[in-house]
Design a protein that fits this description.
Elements lengths: L1 E4 L10 E4 L15 H4 L1 H17 L3 E2 L5 E8 L38 E11 L4 E12 L3 H16 L10
Parallel strand pairs: 2-3, 2-4
Antiparallel strand pairs: 1-6, 4-5, 5-6
Helix pairs in contact: 2-3
């Protein structure tokens, strides 16, 4: 799991969130054969996993939130999130990449697929990226296994996101 925070983000001030709706402006055929993105059941499960993971960290789901959450997931060899448009720049000026030694494209063992997850926390007022977490997990091809692995992976990514502070 890897995470990075904007140098100007005040994550401690955040208390409420929502999960952004599907991105607009997908490139043609960007996800047409990826079951993690085109399968509405899997997509709904990933959304539910994100909501649960943020709530478990003390954040409250809200219509007018302090932050919005965007997510990307894929079982393809490469996850190119630049195909999706949630309305914020994917590579902000402070983004320096994941650093040396991180290989999100390493091979999965036989009979499994490598699933890649990216979770972005965005300021809904100005569409600035505040925080990004990324994880990779081996998943089998069964739907129930994918759901269990996605919750486990999302939870592991968010362990690096601060707990909500009491107060609001």
């Amino acid at each position: 799991m890897r995470t990075v925070t904007s140098p100007h983000a005040d994550l401690v001030a955040l208390h409420t969130f929502n999960v952004m709706s599907q991105p607009k402006g997908q490139a043609p055929d960007a996800t047409s054969s990826d079951p993690m993105l085109v399968n509405s059941i899997t997509n709904r499960a990933l959304r539910a996993d994100l909501v649960k993971a943020f709530q478990d960290r003390g954040y409250v789901l809200a219509d007018h939130p302090d932050f919005s959450v965007a997510f990307y997931a894929s079982t393809k060899q490469k996850l190119d999130v630049t195909y999706f448009d949630y309305g914020y720049p994917y590579y902000p000026y402070w983004w320096g990449g994941w650093g040396p030694g991180f290989d999100p494209y390493a091979r999965a063992p036989p009979s499994t697929r490598r699933a890649r997850f990216v979770v972005d926390v965005v300021d809904p007022q100005n569409n600035e990226l505040l925080w990004r977490g990324q994880g990779v997990a081996n998943v089998s091809t069964t739907r129930s296994s994918t759901s269990r692995i996605s919750l486990k992976t999302v939870t592991a990514i968010l362990e690096k996101f601060p707990q909500a502070q009491a107060g609001r």
